[in-house]
């Protein structure tokens, strides 16, 4: 778990963004599945994908196929 001094943010679901000493960002979900990235913007995207379960725009382009 991240310490308060390096914690960027934490969601109600237990996901968090932590800044590492190397300058990278660790993004973990509540089950401790983690990703590393060098960009805070990308860290925010990753946490959003983990919380919602998909990444825009891909999930919005699914269509029902009528045969």
Write the layout of secondary structure elements.
Elements: E1 7-10, E2 16-19, E3 25-28, E4 34-37, H1 40-52
Defining key terms:
single chain, 67 residues, alpha+beta, four-stranded antiparallel β-sheet, 1 helix
Could you characterize the architecture of this molecule?
The model has no long low-confidence stretch (mean pLDDT 81). It is globular, with a radius of gyration of 15 Å. It has a four-stranded antiparallel sheet, covered by helices on one side. The longest helix is centred in the last third of the chain and has 13 residues, at 40-52. The chain contains one helix and four strands, in the order E-E-E-E-H. A hairpin with a 5-residue loop joins strand 2 (16-19) and strand 3 (25-28). It is α+β, with helices and mostly antiparallel strands and 67 residues long. It has one helix spanning 40-52; strands at residues 7-10, 16-19, 25-28, 34-37.
